[in-house]
Amino acid sequence: VLHLNTTTGKMSKSKGEFLTVSLLEEKGYDPLSYRLFCLQSHYRKSLVFSWENLDNAQGAFNKLLKKIAALKQDDGAVDEAVAAQYKQKFTEQMGNDLNTSMGITALYDVLKAQTNDATKRAIIADFDTVLGLKLIEKADALREKEAKAAATQAAGGYTVTGEGDPAIDALVMARYEAKKAKNFAEADRIRDELKAQGIEIVDAKDGATWKRI
């Protein structure tokens, strides 16, 4: 049981003081940042809730995701010996009366570890089966979002909208770049390649939309 207090006393349903996922989302918070807020404290200790404290937790969550997103996805093989070492330490920390605050600290230790990014991602994914923060999933989504934003900026505001396939997005963007450079033969080649894959492109003034047919 986690004892949640406000600065004025214990939060209680009878006083109309309780949090819901929908309320957090309405206020613009990722519910998992609230989960991180709770995990940063031991379950035996009273936790003082305030929106300012939740802001800090969300900021920490976003920074953690950015650090994980910066890890290379294809960076060699996982060093199983190093992974086992960190997993054992994490198990010991969490096994010490469910010390989740130390479990969170362990994430940052992994990010600073002297090993390759593939190993770091594997360890973090393993830790997250316990912490439940969707770290790899959200970090990968953040990386993709930032890559799309950078590509859009580089393309002068040209945007590609599709069905969530980065490889197709890249081909559609490459077709635009070829047309922009007046390399119409390459643009037609890419169009034909996409057509062969069953992709239909609808061009607009500031971008393109594609779908499978």
Describe this structure in words.
By secondary structure, this protein is mainly α. Helix content is 59%, strand content 11%. The protein has nine helices and six strands. It has helices spanning 21-26, 31-39, 51-69, 80-95, 100-111, 117-131, 135-154, 166-180, 184-196; strands spanning 3-6, 9-10, 46-48, 159-161, 199-204, 207-212. The protein has a three-stranded mixed beta sheet with strand order 2-1-3, with no helix packed on it. Strands 4-6-5 form a three-stranded mixed beta sheet. Helix 4 (80-95) runs parallel beside helix 6 and helix 5 (100-111) runs antiparallel to helix 6. The radius of gyration is 23 Å and the shape is elongated. 18% of the residues are buried. The mean pLDDT is 89.
Quick one: biggest sheet? 3 strands, mixed
Helix content: 55-70%
Order of helices and strands: EEHHEHHHHHEHHEE
Give the termini separation: 52 Å
Instruction: Output the structural class.
Output: mainly alpha
Fraction in beta strands:
5-15%
Side-by-side strand order of the widest sheet:
2-1-3
The coarse silhouette is elongated
The tally of beta strands, per DSSP, is 6
Detail the poorly predicted runs: none
Mean pLDDT: 89
Rg, Å, rounded: 23 Å
Number of helices: 9
